[in-house]
Specification:
The complex is a heterodimer of chains A (188) and B (444).
Chain A (H helix, E strand, L loop, with lengths): L3 H12 L3 H9 L9 H8 L4 H18 L5 H15 L4 H14 L5 H6 L7 H10 L3 H13 L2 H13 L25
Helix pairs in contact in A: 1-2, 2-4, 3-4, 4-5, 4-6, 5-6, 6-8, 8-10, 9-10
Chain B lengths: L8 H8 L26 E6 L3 H15 L3 E7 L3 H13 L5 E3 L2 H6 L5 E4 L3 H13 L3 E4 L7 H14 L3 E3 L7 H11 L6 E8 L20 H5 L25 H5 L1 H11 L8 E8 L11 E8 L4 E7 L9 E7 L2 E6 L9 H4 L19 H15 L8 H20 L3 E4 L4 E2 L3 H5 L12
Parallel strand pairs in B: 1-2, 1-4, 2-3, 4-5, 5-6, 7-10
Antiparallel strand pairs in B: 7-11, 8-9, 8-13, 9-10, 11-12, 13-14
Classes of the chains: A mainly alpha (188), B alpha/beta (444).
Chain lengths: 188, 444
């Protein structure tokens, strides 16, 4: 169990301008667990792109460490914190967090993840993340979103549902439909 | 080499089909397929992705065209700058091609028989599956895939659509690999219990830069394709996609896809699909690229028991910047590089097959091994067996080694891989990462 002081020390070391110190710090973040989720997510929103990147990588280490076999309660605690982060904050942070939840999330994460399906900026990441989530609740959420989604997003949701074994009427796959034009002309 | 020693792919497959372990390479019905329709037909081909390796493929196809074996009909790239250069290059080489930004225009064309895919790695599976579903034969760059599930989908698409998919790990049709393979299989160093690979480090992004708009002419959305959307950064491309886990996978997936392919071939281990894998690595302290700079990965195979080691830098036994060593009961045999660009060790080249020894398939239509690998692909189509030397199933199994090495690294734990069930034993979060949901509509 890490104290608030331990977590603050971790964050301070990640912010250290010396790459060796900073690099060693973020790479050690895995075992810090649930208590480190919010501070690291805050770091992910930092205006300094290198600090934001280090925060992201540190948080992925926390998630993957918590996901190890047999770490049930620790994993659930990290999941709960990630769900809280998903509710607010910059889109670029929530985009990563929804993918993190796709790796360790349970049925309890579905509602928060599904809420992003209505967010124009984040809906595609949320759709992907829910497609990966094994919980049957993810399918239910995708179905519910499909019923009310804008027409252009329904094709993607239909793809997810088919991947999860559901039958969807209409909205055939557009994967083979070309759309992009080049400005290069043929040479004769 | 005498005529009696030479083994054609067709003969090899027919013989192999008698061996239970080789059944998946040559399933019933394939060998008996109608006799080589269009054996003298000129293939109409198209290129998807014309960066570094893609331009090599184009040069090869222009040579095939001069030999009257193909017609180069189309070229595609998400970057108009590259596309323009390739179209000009084709014209100089005697080909009048239609340029495209979107590969799906190529797949719509009924006159095109086959495509050569040399896009960044995260595109390989999607484009291969789509090409197969459109009835095209495929030559796809290594590594075959960036996830295990992608590889499975590629194999399924090739089989369902009865097309040949050759993966561009050329050593299995190159002399260096061939000499090494027959020497190892026939006991030049006795029983091999360990193979170690050495390789120089993955580079670090020591001068990171902020995100920026994509350069003019590059379709960033199409370049990303299946990957989650994010702003452009100059460190993603060209070529440097290899140093990100999601799009390239570092040296172990780039060169490992070559070296592991050769090693599996030499060890006659294509059917040995279960193993444990444990990886450790040193992450870069900063920058966009996230592949480990140094890396040690150990794979343990059972029955027969042997160990495969990937080392960055590893134990550099040879003189060149990467290679591998077969450690046998009676000595060791070094293979510098991967059996393609460099010749075999003289011990292997001079090795005489013992009486009753096991010969190894070899195709030698062209001296240039890049040409030879493609000739082997065309041959598999002409002969109708559709199983080139690095058939997609072999490419998938090789990529699985690379992908699980990286998976063990990012998860920080040892994984036990069940090759029959194609899953990690007792590790549900690891199994989730065997696939990566793809951005619509760039989906399998």
């Amino acid at each position: 169990m890490y104290s608030d002081a331990d977590i603050q020390s971790l964050i301070d070391r990640i912010k250290n301008p010396d790459d060796a110190t900073s690099g060693a710090a973020w790479q050690s973040a895995g075992p810090y667990g649930a208590a480190a989720v919010k501070p690291l997510a805050a770091l992910m929103g930092d205006g300094n792109f290198e600090l934001a990147r280090k925060g992201k990588r540190a948080l992925y280490l926390v998630v993957r460490h918590a996901g190890r076999p047999g770490a049930g309660e620790e994993c659930q605690a990290v999941e709960r914190e990630l769900i809280l982060v998903l509710g607010s904050g910059p889109s670029r942070v929530r985009r990563e967090v929804v993918w993190m939840l796709s790796e360790i999330g349970s049925a309890g994460a579905v509602e928060a993840m599904a809420a992003l399906l209505a967010d124009q900026e984040l809906r595609e990441d949320a759709r992907c993340a829910l497609t990966r989530l094994p919980s049957p609740g993810a399918v239910t959420a995708l179905k519910a979103a499909f019923a009310t989604a804008p027409e252009d997003f329904k094709y993607a949701l239909a793809e997810s549902l088919r991947q999860r074994g559901e039958t969807v009427a209409g909205y055939p796959s557009r994967k083979l439909v070309p759309t992009k034009q080049t400005s290069v002309t043929p040479r004769q | 080499m005498s005529h009696t020693q030479r083994v054609t792919r067709r003969t090899f497959l027919q013989r192999s089909a008698l061996v239970a372990g080789a059944v998946t390479l040559a399933p019933s019905g394939v060998l008996g397929r109608a006799s080589q329709p269009g054996a003298n037909r000129r293939f109409v081909v198209a290129h998807i992705g014309v960066g570094g390796m893609g331009m090599t493929h184009l040069a090869n196809m222009l040579r095939f065209q001069k030999d009257g074996k193909v017609r180069v009909a189309a070229i595609c790239d998400a970057d108009d700058n590259r596309l323009e250069a390739a179209v000009e290059n084709a014209k100089t080489g005697g080909a009048s091609v239609i340029p495209y930004r979107d590969y799906r225009y190529i797949l719509e064309r009924k006159d095109i028989d086959a495509v050569l895919i040399a896009t960044p790695d995260h595109w390989h599976a999607v484009q291969t599956v789509h090409a197969c579903e459109s009835g095209k034969h495929v030559y796809v760059e290594k590594p075959a895939s960036v996830t295990v599930r992608e590889g499975q989908a590629m194999v399924a698409a090739a089989r369902a659509n009865k097309v040949a998919v050759q993966v561009g790990a050329q050593a299995r049709t190159a002399k260096g690999g061939w000499y090494t393979c027959r020497a190892i299989r026939n006991g030049i160093v006795g029983k091999v219990r360990r193979v170690s690979c050495w390789h120089y480090a993955t580079p670090a992004d020591d001068k990171p830069v902020p995100d920026s708009p994509p350069p003019e002419g590059l379709d960033w959305d199409l370049w990303l394709g299946p990957l989650p959307w994010r702003p452009h950064n100059k460190r993603y491309q060209p070529g440097t996609f290899r140093w990100l886990l999601e799009s390239g996978g570092g040296q172990i997936r780039d060169r490992g896809a070559h070296q592991f392919s050769t090693v599996l071939w030499c060890m006659n281990a294509d059917q040995q699909t279960s193993f444990t894998v444990e990886a450790k690595g040193r992450a870069p302290s900063k920058g966009l690229w996230d592949c480990p700079i140094d890396m040690d990965v150990v794979y343990q195979f059972k029955d027969p028991d042997w160990t495969l080691e990937w080392g960055q830098p590893g134990n550099k036994v040879g003189q060149t910047e990467f290679g591998n060593v077969f450690w046998g009961d009676n000595g060791r045999l070094i293979l510098e590089w991967e059996g393609g660009y460099k010749p075999a060790n003289p011990e292997a080249t001079n090795f005489k097959l013992p009486p009753g020894g096991q010969e190894v398939y070899r195709t030698d239509e062209y001296e240039d091994f890049n040409m030879n690998h493609k000739a082997d692909w065309f041959k598999s189509i002409r002969e109708g067996h559709l199983r080139p030397a690095v058939d997609i199933e072999i490419g998938h199994r090789t990529a699985t080694l690379c992908n699980l090495g990286n998976l063990s690294y990012i998860l920080g734990r040892k994984l036990t891989w069940d090759g029959v069930k194609q899953e990690v034993v007792g590790d549900e979060p690891a199994n989730r990462l065997l696939s990566r949901p793809q951005r619509y509509p760039y989906v399998l």
